[in-house]
Write a structure and sequence with these properties.
Helicase, Ruva Protein, domain 3; 5-stranded antiparallel β-sheet; N-terminal domain of MutM-like DNA repair proteins; 4-stranded antiparallel β-sheet; about 290 residues; alpha+beta; 9 helices
């Protein structure tokens, strides 16, 4: 399932392509046809991401709520068809287009026309999102410090922290040397503040480069590139369409999907255990802190 950085990157792609412009909205697949007809010819106002939820804002307080689920994809591509037809590939639930770009949504878990009150209710159920300006880590800490559930499970609970998926939870707990089986109520305040700070560091890099970066050398390289040439990074980011992952960095991790392999730092075999419905990966030697 796409993690929060993917949804925020998607929101920015849609914003760059359509914000402030009148758009054509359709449902080639037909399953969103009635709602699409209400939006067709209106102005695309803004995009908004919250955790793994995406909100497309149109005229008259109409909002499309999208959740990609496990297999959903939402590409934004340039085209040279003018106002003519753009060929449809696959089962497209929702299409938003103008004379320069076309955005096709395929296979979402949810695509629904909602009201501002519905949107507010969704946000009220979510924990703080480290990628949003209104995020309050104290809300997450208040829930964590009262819970007997392991921190590895709490980080996957979208009502605790919004946007964190399996890759980030495994990697950030390893980077912070936190035992993933630590009950929330036994996690130190210092450890939590380190986890949150790492989320605020790594998630924006995921947005910028279209891939999850957690290896220390790659994080340093990414930060250096941003510092040296922010315009070049912005151009790279704008070139990502949502059809696939970014390719600037090699795909490698500290512990994720490395069951039985040697920890890159101490050599201990990486362990695996299913927690919160997903396989957790960790090093029991490095991750002994609470």
């Amino acid at each position: 399932m796409p993690e929060g950085h993917t949804i925020h990157a998607q929101a920015r792609r849609l914003e760059r392509a359509f914000a402030g412009r009148r758009v054509r909205v359709s449902s080639p697949q037909g399953r969103f046809a009635e709602a699409a007809a209400l939006l067709d010819g209106t102005t695309y106002v803004a995009s908004e991401a919250a955790g793994k939820h995406l909100f497309l804002h149109f005229d008259d307080d109409r909002i499309v709520h999208v959740h990609l689920g496990l297999i959903g994809a939402f590409s934004v591509l340039p085209h040279d068809h003018g106002d003519g037809d753009v060929p449809v590939r696959g089962a497209v639930r929702l299409r938003v287009r103008d004379d320069e770009h076309v955005a096709d949504l395929r296979g979402p878990n949810l695509c629904a026309l909602i009201t501002p009150e519905d949107r507010d209710a969704v946000l009220a159920r979510l924990g703080p999102d480290p990628l949003r300006d209104d995020a309050d880590p104290e809300r997450a800490w208040a829930r964590i410090r009262r819970s007997g559930k392991p921190v590895a499970e709490l980080l996957m609970d979208q009502a605790v922290v919004a946007g964190v998926g399996n890759v980030y939870r495994c990697e950030i707990l390893h980077r912070g040397r936190v035992d993933p089986l630590t009950p929330g109520k036994e996690l130190s305040r210092e450890a939590w503040e380190g986890i949150w700070a790492d989320l605020e560091l790594l998630l924006p890099l995921g947005v910028a480069f279209g891939q999850i970066l957690t290896m220390r050398d790659q994080v340093d390289d990414a930060l250096d590139w941003i510092a040296r040439s922010p315009q070049a990074v912005e151009e790279y980011t704008a070139g990502l369409t949502g059809d696939g992952l970014g390719e600037h960095f090699e795909r490698r991790f500290h512990v994720y999907k490395r069951t039985g392999e040697a920890c890159r730092e101490c050599g201990t075999p990486i362990r695996t255990q299913k927690i919160a419905g997903r396989y957790l990966y960790w090093c029991e030697h490095c991750q002994r802190g609470r």
